[in-house]
Amino acid sequence: MTASAEAAVVTAGRRGEKPRNRSFAVTLVVLGALLLVSATAGMAIGSVHVPPGEVWGIVTHALGADWTEPGWSRARETIVLNVRAPRVVLGAVTGAGLAVIGTAMQALVRNPLAEPYLLGVSSGASLGAVTVIVFGVSLLGPVSLSAAAFAGALLTLLLVYTTARTGGRITSVRLVLSGVAMAAVLTAVMDILLLTSDRGNEARAVLAWTLGGLGGVQWGTLWLPGTALLLGIVVLLVQARSLNLLLAGEESATTMGLDVARFRARMFVLLSLVTGVLVAAAGPIGFVGLMLPHVVRLFVGGDHRRVLPAAALAGAVFLIWADIAARTVAAPMEIPVGVLTALCGGPFFLWLMRRDARRTTDRGVA
Description:
Blueprint: H1 3-44, H2 52-62, H3 74-108, H4 121-135, H5 144-164, H6 172-195, H7 202-210, H8 223-238, H9 240-246, H10 250-255, H11 260-282, H12 288-300, H13 304-328, H14 337-365
Helix pairs in contact: 1-3, 1-13, 3-8, 3-11, 3-12, 3-13, 4-5, 4-6, 4-7, 4-11, 5-6, 5-11, 8-11, 12-13, 13-14
């Protein structure tokens, strides 16, 4: 290729990059605006309706940015600040975290059906929570349930890595299979605990927790999932180039200088720990990490430098609205938010499987 031809290719690539950058910027702006609208709706909608203007009046007054005399009741202020606002923040953090983790998992195992609970972490967290509920353990007070769930997730991660390690090496296939097997064992143990329990009310409490939910959260418990999300996003953005290399295959990534086995092991540990924190805070909410990465890629492409921040915003928006629906669809009864995400994710999962099957068939014909 001549120097002029090479220059033409570079120039064309730069021209193609500019529209993609503009599209990415527009997508981020739109998602940011949707997140702001969603947060407002999450604090305004409920059994007691609070006008959006009043919502932000309450919020800005609480932050010290508004020194005017409050024109709202003390009850509405308590509802917005102490009941709905923490719930909205947890929904945004959990949705963003699950979407980002799902994005990374799909790249690490090169499987579009991968999701955050691939390594059985959610089963370990569920067993920890069930143990607290069944035996009535309250050593740590109101955080006993979340602490037990995280401990169960962490212990599961250690067991999965121990069983997957052979000859000092861990392959992604053995890791995934170990996670599936461990999830089955832990689920069986959880069922035995429920069946042999002498107390009759545990099954309902366990079912509510295992379906996921954002209710009852307090400001003092939000720092841990928030920190985990920030850490996960920062590390993944730093490693976005390595995630991009994996899309081309292991051999190509190795040729480009990436130690695939070590990189995967480190990423799996990080993602599993962040998942454990999120599950401990909100329960195992399914399908968010499966759906949102694919939806986002339709708008921003496959580059993880774009997909990760867009997926975080989209996941936050989606889970906030799922929680709004969970609170209002069957009011005054609240539906576990995991039920609604499953109703959305189940059909999406089937569509994704059919799409991949058609692509495989088309490649075979070609």
